Each structure stands twice: as structure tokens, then as C-alpha cells.
Amino acid sequence: MAFAGMLNDEDVRAAVKACQVPGSFDYKLFFTRVGLSARADVQGQRVFNILDRDQSGFIEEEELKLFLQNFSLGA
């Protein structure tokens, strides 16, 4: 995956599991749990660019779902 060396699969799975209740997703908390908050801005921008598949400048719900489902099919 394009996140090799940047994100730990287990951290992402744990973060996905922590927001299973509908309406409980908090992107700031999620990014902290997966370790993105502690990364340099350039690394965060790289992750953003990977997630923003249509290069719209935004991460739409479907793009986020696709990313999360790589780690957990029910995400």
C-alpha cells in the first residue's frame, strides 16, 4: 500500500474499530490514533494527496471509505 512506512496497519485497524458507532468518527482523533498528528507537515500532505484520489483538494466520504476499507471491510 502507498502508506508503507508511514502508517501502521494495526494502528489504523484500532482507530477504525474505535469509531464503529455511527456518528462517532472524529477526524482529529482518528489522525492522532493512527499517528498522523505526530508526522511532519510534508508527510501529512503526502497522505492527504494519496487519499484525495480525484485531486479535488478535499477528501470526500467515498475516498475515506475506500481508504478505511483497505484495513477493515466493514468500515
UniProtKB/TrEMBL annotation:
Gene Ontology CC terms, in alphabetical order: cytoplasm
List of residues binding Ca(2+): D52, D54, S56, F58, E63
Database matches in SUPFAM superfamilies: EF-hand
Keyword Transit peptide on entry: no
Segments forming domain EF-hand: 39-74
Domain of life of the native organism: Eukaryota
UniProt keyword terms in alphabetical order: Calcium, Metal-binding, Muscle protein
Pfam families registered for this protein in UniProt: EF-hand_6
Keyword Plastid belongs to the record: no
One MF term in the entry's GO annotations: calcium ion binding
PANTHER family noted in UniProt: PARVALBUMIN (PTHR11653:SF12), PARVALBUMIN ALPHA (PTHR11653)
Function statement: In muscle, parvalbumin is thought to be involved in relaxation after contraction. It binds two calcium ions.
Family in the record: Belongs to the parvalbumin family.
Protein name: Parvalbumin
Species assigned in the record: Aldrovandia affinis
